[in-house]
């Protein structure tokens, strides 16, 4: 449906989600985040889907939380209404990889949304930032936590305290972005990456995502143990036998996702 706030389509084994509030530069309101969470979880549950791409418009991935919607919030509106947590938690439940394809502005909640994805691919037009300080607030969906983990304290402090924007080249140098491509290539590049991932063995992909995320949540010794246990368990899959047999037989593998 073209008037939906989140457009969805499938490209082979890839689920493509497009934020569709272009006149407000994809400002994130509750309804949009509800739709996005539902769409991501639906693709996550679909056995025909192996990876997802989340994108916005040419001008904006998302210019942040909807300022008009939250302008008159009181402390209690935000707290008792569970502002942000309620419909952002769905994203954390997604087990398949999500690739953010970012063109234009990814600011505030838009930058935080990109950082919740597993791989960020940026167009050369992309601009990242946490400008909340200009509004008299601070980031509220992970900007003060995920940004330092991605780019280090020095640059995170610079961005969060001044509200300045970072272009795509700086974001790539800083480690926020995996690849930068010309704007015209953005969607093709993201779909190619997602298609390649969706062609891998799904159990291995899910475990790889879990294990990399563990690196942020646990001490090294615990993370290494988690990785080793996951690694050992993959020898119980048919796909491991197929992958290694295919290599030795010099042919492409045909994974069954089990
Ligand atoms: N909220 C609501 N409307 C917005 C937003 C926004 N964040 N961003 C842009 N718009 C609207 C504008 O009001 C304008 O609407 P209208 O045409 O009706 O006047 C339309 O989009 C186009 O915007 P501009 O005319 O401003 O376009 P420009 O090209 O001149 O400027 C900018 C583009 C630089 C992106 C500018 O729009 C801007 O600075 N936007 C606000 C960016 C910002 O401050 N983001 C942070 C918001 S706070 C936040 O995200 C807190 C996160 C908390 C967690 C997330 C919870 C969901």
TrEMBL record:
Protein name: Enoyl-CoA hydratase
InterPro entries per the UniProt record, alphabetical: ClpP/crotonase-like_dom_sf, Enoyl-CoA_hyd/isom_CS, Enoyl-CoA_hydra/iso, Enoyl-CoA_hydra_C
TM segment ranges: none
Keyword entries, A-Z: Lyase
Source species: Pigmentiphaga soli
PANTHER family: ENOYL-COA HYDRATASE, MITOCHONDRIAL, ENOYL-COA HYDRATASE-RELATED
Matches recorded under NCBIfam families: PRK05862.1 (NF004517)
The keyword Lyase appears for this protein: yes
Assigned protein family: Belongs to the enoyl-CoA hydratase/isomerase family.
Superkingdom in the source lineage: Bacteria
């Amino acid at each position: 449906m073209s008037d939906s706030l989140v457009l969805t389509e499938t490209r082979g084994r890839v689920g493509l989600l497009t934020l569709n509030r272009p006149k407000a530069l994809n400002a994130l309101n509750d309804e949009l985040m509800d739709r996005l969470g539902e769409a991501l979880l639906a693709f996550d549950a679909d056995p025909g889907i192996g990876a997802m791409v989340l994108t916005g418009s040419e001008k904006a991935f998302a210019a942040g939380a909807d300022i008009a919607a939250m302008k008159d919030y009181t402390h209690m509106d935000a707290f008792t209404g569970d502002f942000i947590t309620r419909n952002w938690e769905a994203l954390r439940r997604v087990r398949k990889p999500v690739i953010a394809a970012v063109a234009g502005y990814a600011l505030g909640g838009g930058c935080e949304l990109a950082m919740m994805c597993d791989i960020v691919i940026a167009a050369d037009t992309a601009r990242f930032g946490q400008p909340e300080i200009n509004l008299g607030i601070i980031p509220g969906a992970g900007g003060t936590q995920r940004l330092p983990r991605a780019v280090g304290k020095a640059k995170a402090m610079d961005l969060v305290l001044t509200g300045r924007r970072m272009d795509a080249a700086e974001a790539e140098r800083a480690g926020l972005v995996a690849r930068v491509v010309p704007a015209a290539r953005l969607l093709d590049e993201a779909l190619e990456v997602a298609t390649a991932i969706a062609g891998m063995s799904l159990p291995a992909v899910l475990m790889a995502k879990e294990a990399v995320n563990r690196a942020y949540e646990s001490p090294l010794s615990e993370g290494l143990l988690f990785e080793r246990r996951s690694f050992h368990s993959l020898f119980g899959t048919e796909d491991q036998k197929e992958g290694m047999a295919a290599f030795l037989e010099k042919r492409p593998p045909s994974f069954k996702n089990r």
